[in-house]
Input
Amino acid sequence: MLVLLEQAYLFYKIPQDNVRGSQRLRANDKYYVVDNGLWHSQVGEVLTNVGSQLENIVCLELLRRGCDVKFGSIDGKEADFVAEKRGER
Output
């Protein structure tokens, strides 16, 4: 189902990456909605889960700026975004 939503350009799939090395981790990917208005139309309450909405906005902005966006973890703590552009993290 998520693949169909991604192919319909409703969600972006962000893969997980090992921040310390080049090895790809085996884990679930994260999905971000292409428009927060779509989120509001389905969820209803605007003030719920503001952190997730802000995370979605940051992801969209990184993608808009042409970054290759992934997420990972450093020392057991989650890094919401690992953005790479022109070889620079």
